[in-house]
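Q: I have two molecules that I believe assemble together. Could you output structure tokens for the complex as a whole instead of separate predictions?
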Amino acid sequence: MNLIFNLKQSTANCINNLYSIQLQPEQVLVNATKPEFEGDYTIVLFAFVKQLGKSPEVLGNELGEAMLAAMPGIITKFNIVKGFLNFTISNAYWFDFINATTPDNLLPAAKHPRKIMVEYSSPNTNKPLHLGHLRNNFLGWSIAEILKLQGNEVVKTCIVNDRGIHICKSMIAWQLFANGATPNDTKQKGDHFVGDYYVKYNDAYKAEVTALVASGMTQELAEKEAPIQKAAQAMLLKWEQGDPETIELWKHMNSWVYEGFNTTYKKIGSDFAKTYYESNTYLLGKELVEQGLNKKVFYQKEDSSVWIDLTADGLDEKIVRRKDGTSVYITQDIGLAEVKQKEFNTDASIYVVGDEQNYHFKVLKLICQKLQLPAADGIFHLSYGMVELPTGKMKSREGTVVDADDLVEEMIAISKEKTESLGKVSEFSQDQLTELYNTIGLGALKFFLLRVDPKKKMVFNPEESIDFHGFTGPFIQYTHARIKSILRKTGTDINLVASELLPLEKQLAIELSTFPDVINEAAETLDPSKVAIYTFNLAKLFNTFYAELSISNAESEEKKHLRIKLGILIAATLQKGMSALGIAVPEKM
RNA sequence: GGUUCGGUAGCUCAGCUGGAUAGAGCGUCAUCCUUCUAAGAUGAGGGCCAUUGGUUCGAAUCCAAUCCGAAUCACCA
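A: Yes, here they are, computed for all two components at once.
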């Protein structure tokens, strides 16, 4: 059931029959009719007026009559205003829609289900998660859910950046300053504990550089010569050589971090079918470099480093293997793409990664295509913008990061406070209350981060903590709870009898009918904000309806049953839409 | 400098496959709880859609130039 498509199709057919002009349904523009005009859907005639050499009035009348005949029982009348042909859809059509729709068939079955990988989260093990990671995690989860609603099979993966110089920095600082302390001793989450040593490293490094400069060294030289920096580099070398003591320390500190991450993931609801570790994957891709050399996709310079020339594609030359034979970032990613493809054999692979890596992913896809890897064409980069503070970018060194755990706790605390002050859930048990606060607090946070276009950078103002009114998660959760409360009183045992729909009832039916299109569009554009906006509009429309018309005290039994059915469908749609954002909706709040 | 992305109400954002009078939320002001959950609803106010030019019956939307902001152009990941 897709009325808009049928309208386009019929219009194309009618124009073809009337004037022998071939039109694709996609060329027909169908809009919802503006409220100030009569009708439900509007076809814009201007596009055809010129081509047919007919006035909009004449064309509108001829086309309108033909459409009446083409869609009997659906289109009941039409009118023409300037170049706009407005159709009124029959009451029976919308009544049948309400009657035939159930919470279980809100979305059609998948036509071509695919197997899709979503890689997201991808943390570093030297510092705790912050607001930017939350955007990443929520986006990744949401995209996975949206794709599942479409009927696809989804495999969620995570690549952990667990090696490299930044990890060594935390390790050195721990050796120097910790006196053998563990997260247990300081009662800290492991990721915060390790993150603190990363900060301590940077403080020590800065102090050393300042001291060296004071003793007469140039800034540039001091930055290279700072002893702690040299120690970190030496440690990286030892790590790469497999020095047992270093490896042991590395494993130990990473285990603390993972414990912390797991707590956070559990709290915010992130999970993965498979986690890859860069310490295992960083040597991948070497055989592919050899293959690429043989295929002449790559070339070798005199110093024996290996490159690819992408200038023909509008990009630069890019190194894929160092002169010492080691892999670079891009090489690993090529290797990992191949490994993932072999392991899961997916039709597509979506990488949820910040937009600072746009260039990287362009190069990655291009190289994979040139190597003719099976994974190549399925690579999609879901690029999202940074979360900024009103003062600008978050910088860990300047202490301006918004910590993920802190923010989550704050949101839950606010939801607790608000819930208590409203006093509507006095009969809840302590466990139920805890769950409710989590649901609302996380709902507010997730909705806030998902309601804007992922591509765009967004501003988060910690001073004006996230809202619970208006275009927010709690507003929609509240609307859902409100409907459920009504349905508990009226019951859901209904017997639908056809009746004339009031404008608000019809509007709700129309809004409900677009849900599948919204999910499809969100899936195609990898944009959960489309779903956020839709659920908000639906909830808002229901609230208007609620203020105007009574369900339990409806004018008649037919109306009461009809509105109960609408309530059931709206609640179910809100629930599904919000679940696509990773947000639960309470029965009561 | 090259490439890419952005600039819409005081603030945060929709709208951008060209269509009727540019929309929400927050904030401000004013109304509505003896009646299904007021985390709600209704109304008011708020706009040279960065600028200039072009294409078109019609431009916030497409094209060009300019201004402003961001990312990137690493043998870091």
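A: One point stands out. The first strand of chain A starts at residue 30 and ends at 32.
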